[in-house]
Write a sequence for this structure.
């Protein structure tokens, strides 16, 4: 091995701590960047594989009166169509524990096209009339199992009694959301697959189409989405002339788009966090390498005097940083690609039905991460080395003059300065003496505190969303879904709810949209608008993380109340108009009078008067909210009742789902903690090394070890506290940004940070500062007075 | 009994497996309130003697008695108290804290010593009345050394230990510094100066010559010369 390499290896060995901390920071950055992006890629690839496996449709054609076999053949002939499969989709009622629920049945896809093939989980697929394959949720909620008999009520079925012979997942349903229907209260609960021959209608309700070239595209990508819109326009043009009907893409489906968006949200988190890490890496590397070059000025001078070129001398420091960045980057990339996708995919697994596929190492991404790690660590060497190696050999061999003392700003305010004790004066002057290290420590501590606040705050938001939605906002204990109620029915139901407070409502699921975007929303029209606030707390959205004011909004007669997230998705504010499209295809323009706080699903609250003005008739009531103890059992038995939704049950359900997201929080928190420790350790150590002489002087004067330590720690503590204060504020913003970024389609996270989180974040930062001070105390004690003071100044 | 007694003091340094004996059984005594000079060529071990006397280093063997107590027996904490209460140290390169003004450097000493002198008054005594608020970088070498002396004297030490105090200064300035030190000894402070410059030995009450880690000679001057009469 050449002396050059020996020198580098010995350097690494003798400055192990320094090398490790530099490497760790590079590692963390690569870990997060690869981990998060690999997860997003993995989620998209898993979906891509799953869509291909299921042979997922590109276009769905639907006709109000159905397609004939001739129509299907005509569509197969259209240029660009690869294959088309006619099918029947029929919504039916099914009784689940005495509740009548809406279920969508699909004709089982068959060869040759077999578009949208379900995945068999258990049992087998229907092979004859009166056989049905259902989803697991139906079995769980209905207390059913394979072999049980179910009765379906609906048109166009040749039989009504079916035996459950299999359990399936449908490629059409990625989440627990099943969408809307024209049956009942408009909410679809389940899906199921029937043998094709079971449907006895003379026409097909739908045609699923796969377009040529579709499978050449990644199925979950912007490219695919753009192409799909193009296909849709072309298909619409063709259909308009001959057959008629509507054309839908996957983006109109229930969750395809939100799944794609989730991966993109994850990616934006994956940009912000690593950015913080790499920025810190640059700062740490800058101080570390500056220190190293300064320590070795004499040696650099010797190399120069021996005739080494500047570039050759710099190479040593460059290689040192390169080794560090490279090893940190590679290890981080490998760990990140293996650990984070597992953890996060698992968390999202609670929300999406998406089988995990094997994920190969993301080479491109890994390369980018390693490169970023290397660049952020080595960039600093350029700065520090260029300055040093361009000096003359002779001047290099002379030690660098110490930085002269400077007056600080506060000294120019005699009123304050006079009041400070001697030690406080010294401390304040020292803090501002080493500006670069001061700002680095400040940035380091602030960054870590901000990350901790964000992580704890995410925990607060995720943890409180269920409580806020189902305890603070939804005040009713149960929502009874009924068919449209006659006056007699209403009276009977009122008797059944004796002892509890009840409010009759009209509920309907609509598609609320503006040109910006739109989502399925529930419109709630209470019979008596004055009483709505006792059942739903209608409040203005919170501003930032401040609590909202309660009960200050009510539906008016010239507009509706729109929940926060829906308004944001549609890009509207109070006073703007938007469109609602009902299940029957009719659209109405409505005005948003106010925006209200809400966290789960989208709601539109409308007064009966406003309904009257839109629809020219009064609302047909189809449900009631109940506050208090009601005889749910006798309610269920009433013939008009379809289902009862229990608020407590909804709350627990949501809690289960959101808990999974806490995992992401823990990943971020651990990363933030490691970062904090490394940065503080590094800076404190360098601080001691740079001021050896000063500290030795204090010792000679007779400062005890602890007094010498306090001389330094007082500075550290002041900067730490300043950093924490800054970090708490920055954390609020970072938290807000991250929350908006990670929100899933129908869920809005409250921007809440509890005081405990602030205290914990500050506490951990202080604890870390203390731990680092304790660790470096040994170094202070070990300072050799004789050696430190001997040299020339 | 003498104020400082070195008895058979030895100091070894380990460098890997090699044992280097810097001080080899040194014996000498210094009197209280006198001006002593330890002289010898560089590398003779005189700095080691001074560092051990000042509680900055420790002896491998033998005893060093200062004011009746054996300082080689002091623990880490006690030794720090000894440095704080009994010793004032002056270095060739001043070792001022760069980020503190002249006054603050002196305050640093008085801060840890209760029976300390008034910092401003001491600085005035060493002739720096109008330089109180200057940083070290704004002072000349001689001025910096005077701040260092003021900082040492501010603690009202019993022993003032000076390691080549004029080594980095020109002739005139160096003489000014020696004058201040001589005045200190006249006020009762025991002053020990180490130097390789034999020319200043006539001003000392006692001169200890050290060579190769051993005492070569001890000479007492019956009538030490004032600084102004010394030339080199």
């Amino acid at each position: 091995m050449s002396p050059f390499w020996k020198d580098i290896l010995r350097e690494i060995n003798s400055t192990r701590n320094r090398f490790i901390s530099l490497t760790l920071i590079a590692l963390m950055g690569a870990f997060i960047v690869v981990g998060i992006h690999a997860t997003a890629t993995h989620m998209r690839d898993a979906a891509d594989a799953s869509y291909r496996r299921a042979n997922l449709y590109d276009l769905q054609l639907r006709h109000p009166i159905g397609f004939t076999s001739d129509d299907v053949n005509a569509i197969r002939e259209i240029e660009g169509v690869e294959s088309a499969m006619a099918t029947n989709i029929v919504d039916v009622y099914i009784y689940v524990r005495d509740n009548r629920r809406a279920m969508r049945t699909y004709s089982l896809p068959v060869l040759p096209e077999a578009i949208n093939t379900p995945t068999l989980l258990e049992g087998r697929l229907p092979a004859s009339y009166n056989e049905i394959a259902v989803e697991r949720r139906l079995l769980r909620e209905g207390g059913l199992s394979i072999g049980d008999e179910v009765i379906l009520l609906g048109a166009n079925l040749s039989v009504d009694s079916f035996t459950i012979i299999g359990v399936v997942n449908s490629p059409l349903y990625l989440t627990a959301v099943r969408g809307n229907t024209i049956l009942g209260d408009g909410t679809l609960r389940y899906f199921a697959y029937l043998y094709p021959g079971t449907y006895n209608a003379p026409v097909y309700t739908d045609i699923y189409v796969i377009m040529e070239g579709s499978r050449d595209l990644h199925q979950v990508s912007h490219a695919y989405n753009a192409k799909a819109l193009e296909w849709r326009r072309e298909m619409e043009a063709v259909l308009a002339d001959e057959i008629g009907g509507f054309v839908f893409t996957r983006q109109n489906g229930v969750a395809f788009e939100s799944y794609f968006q989730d991966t993109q949200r994850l990616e934006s988190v994956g940009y912000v966090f690593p950015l913080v890490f790499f920025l810190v890496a640059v700062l740490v590397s800058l101080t570390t390498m500056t220190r190293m070059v300064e320590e070795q000025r004499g040696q650099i001078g010797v190399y120069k005097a021996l005739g080494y070129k500047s570039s050759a001398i710099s190479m040593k420091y460059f290689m040192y940083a390169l080794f560090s960045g490279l090893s940190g980057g590679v290890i981080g990339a490998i760990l990140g690609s293996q650990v984070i996708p597992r953890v996060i995919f698992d968390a999202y697994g609670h929300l999406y039905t998406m089988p995990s596929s094997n994920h190969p190492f993301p080479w491109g991404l890994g390369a980018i991460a390693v490169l970023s790690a290397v660049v952020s660590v080595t960039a600093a060497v350029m700065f520090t080395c260029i300055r040093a190696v361009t000096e003359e050999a002779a001047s290099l061999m002379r030690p660098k003059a110490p930085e002269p003392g400077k007056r600080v700003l506060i000294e120019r305010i005699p009123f304050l300065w006079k009041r400070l004790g001697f030690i406080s004066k010294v401390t304040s002057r020292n803090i501002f003496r080493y500006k670069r290290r001061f700002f680095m420590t400040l940035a380091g501590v602030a960054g870590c505190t901000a990350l901790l606040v964000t992580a704890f705050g995410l925990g607060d938001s995720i943890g409180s969303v269920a409580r806020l939605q189902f305890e603070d906002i939804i005040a009713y204990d149960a929502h009874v879904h009924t068919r449209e109620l006659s006056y007699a029915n209403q009276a009977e139901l009122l008797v059944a709810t004796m002892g509890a407070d009840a409010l009759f409502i009209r509920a309907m699921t609509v598609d609320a949209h503006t040109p910006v975007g739109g989502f399925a929303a529930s419109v709630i029209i209470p019979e008596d608008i004055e009483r709505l606030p006792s059942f739903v707390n209608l409040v203005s959205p919170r501003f930032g993380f401040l609590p909202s004011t309660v009960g200050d909004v009510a539906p008016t007669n010239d507009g509706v109340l729109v929940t926060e997230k829906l308004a944001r998705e549609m890009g509207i504010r109070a006073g703007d108009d938007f469109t609602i499209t009902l299940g029957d295809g009719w659209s109405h323009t409505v005005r948003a009078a106010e925006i209200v706080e809400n966290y789960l699903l989208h709601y539109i609250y409308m007064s009966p008067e406003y309904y009257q003005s839109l629809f020219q008739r009064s609302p047909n009531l189809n449900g009631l909210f109940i506050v208090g103890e009601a005889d749910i059992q006798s309610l269920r038995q009433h013939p008009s009742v379809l289902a009862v939704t229990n608020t407590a049950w909804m709350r627990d359900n949501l809690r289960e789902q959101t808990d999974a997201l806490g995992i992401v929080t823990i990943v971020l928190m651990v990363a933030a903690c490691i970062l904090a420790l490394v940065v503080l350790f590094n800076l404190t150590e360098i601080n001691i090394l740079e001021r050896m002489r000063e500290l030795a002087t204090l010792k000679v004067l007779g400062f005890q070890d602890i007094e010498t330590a306090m001389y330094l720690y007082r500075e550290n503590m002041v900067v730490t506290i300043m950093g924490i204060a800054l970090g708490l504020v920055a954390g609020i913003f970072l938290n807000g940004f991250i929350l908006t970024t990670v929100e899933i389609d129908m869920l809005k996270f409250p921007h809440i940070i509890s005081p405990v989180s602030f205290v914990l974040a500050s506490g951990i930062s202080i604890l870390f500062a203390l731990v680092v001070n304790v660790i470096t105390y040994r170094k202070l004690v070990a300072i050799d007075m004789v050696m430190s003071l001997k040299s020339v100044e | 009994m003498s104020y400082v007694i070195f008895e058979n003091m030895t100091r070894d340094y380990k460098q890997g497996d090699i044992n280097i004996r810097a001080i080899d059984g040194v014996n000498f005594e210094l009197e209280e309130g006198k001006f002593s000079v330890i002289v010898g060529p560089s590398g003779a071990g005189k700095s080691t003697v001074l560092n051990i006397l000042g509680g900055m280093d420790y002896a491998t063997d033998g005893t060093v008695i200062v004011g009746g107590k054996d300082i080689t027996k002091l623990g880490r904490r006690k030794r720090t108290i000894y440095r704080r209460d009994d010793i004032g140290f002056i270095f060739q390169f001043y070792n001022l804290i760069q980020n503190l003004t002249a006054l603050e450097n002196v305050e640093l000493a008085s801060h840890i010593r209760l029976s300390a002198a008034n910092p401003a008054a001491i600085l005035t005594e060493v002739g720096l009345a109008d330089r109180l608020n200057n940083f070290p970088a704004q002072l000349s070498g001689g001025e910096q050394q005077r701040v260092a002396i003021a900082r040492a004297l501010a603690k009202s030490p019993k022993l003032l230990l000076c390691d080549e105090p004029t080594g980095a200064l020109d002739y005139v300035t160096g003489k000014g510094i020696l004058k201040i030190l001589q005045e200190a000894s006249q006020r009762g402070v025991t002053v020990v100066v180490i130097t390789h410059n034999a020319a200043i030995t006539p001003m000392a009450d006692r001169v200890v010559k050290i060579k190769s880690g051993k005492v070569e000679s001890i000479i007492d001057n019956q009538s030490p010369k004032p600084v102004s009469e010394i030339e080199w």
User: Anything to note?
Assistant: Chain A has a mean pLDDT of 84.
